[in-house]
Amino acid sequence: MNENILLSEKIKKRVQFLRSQSDNEDISQLSGYLIQVCYGKEEILTNFLNPGARADLKELAQDDFYVQEFGGYDRAEKCRAIIRNDWEYQDVRNFQLKLINITYNHKFATITHSQILGTLIGSGLNLSSFGDIITDGKGNWQFFISEAMADFVCQEIKRIGKVAVNLNEVSLKQIVNIEDEVQNTKIVVNSLRIDSILAALINSSRSIIKKMIEKENIKLNWHKVDNSNIIVTVNDVLSVRHYGRIEISNITTTRKGKYRLEASLWLSKKKRIY
User: Backbone phi, then psi, for 193, in 5-degree steps?
Assistant: First the structure.
């Protein structure tokens, strides 16, 4: 049995394992990328992937492939990935993404992230066609999009909500100073269970957190959570619907045996906890 067949069998086994662990509906597509490289495709450039999908891709690839990613700037949430079976440095241009600037009359109108997102999807694009939507908090908005769709959005999108806009491509060097509304906090908890930590972080009760888990309103590392007993660790990212995103940056133990957590919070503009 040649090496390609052996490698493809390894990928299939990893797919089976991931499907038992992950709710990512794109696992078949991710494994398909690897199979193409396995059978002779020199490299594959993916669409924009969220962090959960990229984690699954790396789990499938392991040490058999090289995966490099870029989303337009450091710490981008959505990135495109280049997959190869041998290492080759990738210039940012190889990721084929463009930065689109949104121009409109700031004096008389405002636009929001949700309006931009809705307009892009309403124009016929899917979520994997574009990357992060960013702002400087002063009314200036930009977003990243695949090179193939850049001309389309610039020509077709003339309004966002009720606001007349003009979209044009700008250099990646012209990225806005991104507003980062992160809030840093510290808490002390008795348990590292996800329901205990979230109850303390968002000032709620464990019973409400459990109901939110049942309604699939909570994600851990971009995957749905169905068990309130899951143990949270350093670098885990918790997403709470209508509330925001939380990243655990440090965990230490107190002298009384409790846990001291340091976390970064990116809160939704409209916080609602059910």
Answer: -65, 145
What is the reported pLDDT for 247? 93
Residue among 64, 63, 59, 69 at smallest CA distance from 90: 69
Q: What is the pLDDT of residue 1?
A: 45
Which among 142, 137, 146 has a CA at the least distance from the CA of 168? 142
171 pLDDT more than 70: yes
Q: Tell me if 237 sits within 8 A of 222, measured CB to CB.
A: yes
- With contact defined as beta carbons under 8 Å apart, do 141 and 111 qualify? yes
From the list 259, 232, 260, the residue with the least C-alpha distance to 246 is 232
Q: Is the pLDDT of residue 77 over 50?
A: yes
Two tokens at 96? 């084929």
Helix (H) or strand (E) holding 71: none
Amino acid at residue number 237: V
